[in-house]
## 1
Amino acid sequence: MIKDIMDDIISERKSKNIEDDYGIQNCWNKMIDILSKDINETVAYLENCSEEDIYFISEVFEDVSEQLQSKEYIECLRKLDDKFPNLDMTKDINLAEEYI
């Protein structure tokens, strides 16, 4: 279920012009809402995401962390950082960790 919803949101986010601040923020808010509902669903979903999807989701790592307040979430992000080193997410993950 979460995958279908997130696929739609990520697709919408990809279609936004880089200067469409309102549209991008709206996509981020949707992602934050979905990913902040259930830690177990979120971790399971993230573990199966593509590199491209993680790239877009990484834009909201900190906000989701603030909502979830979960070390399990941070551990999941660290595994994703190892899995997708080209995304260079370490700084984002460190910042997300500060939110818990």
Note: The helical segments are 2-15, 21-35, 39-47, 51-57, 61-68, 71-83, 90-98.
## 2
Amino acid sequence: MDMPLSATRPQAAARPDGAPAGGTGATGAGGGQGGDTDHGTDGDRVDGTAQEPSDPTVGSAEWDLLTDGVRWDAETFLLLRCDPGHGPLSLDRLPDRVPEADRPLLRRMMTETLVHGRTAAGTLRIRRPDGLLDSVDCAGEPVLGPDGTVTVLRMLLRPAARAGATENR
């Protein structure tokens, strides 16, 4: 999957190789063009999670492991078929939206991100209230604390860009 995580990367985010990012950011908005300069619009924008992404079909979510805080934008509620009135799901409840057959992939992605501090991406199916399944591309990135442990998980989601993204299972 070629879904970029973001146009900017926070100082404390892990790079895909697991090393902490240095400087003020990684790739620019052009997707891999240009060194370690920050092309964000403000100091709070990180991977589209502090403010809504400019693409309305991309959702962003953030789980703060230190405070148990969870923040989703409106698109994430839509993509994961969750009622905004009930609030965002904790990481423990996220598998509830995924069919049993896709849970091993979700567990691998979570292990890569939360345990190994590396970026992870994959396509998961999300169960709709009518029982049908929608495919969603997910990309997660850890934010590392000063001691090198993961403190925040940031995730971008978008509808899968392949034919037959809705399945009947």
Note: The chain is about 10% helix and 25% strand.
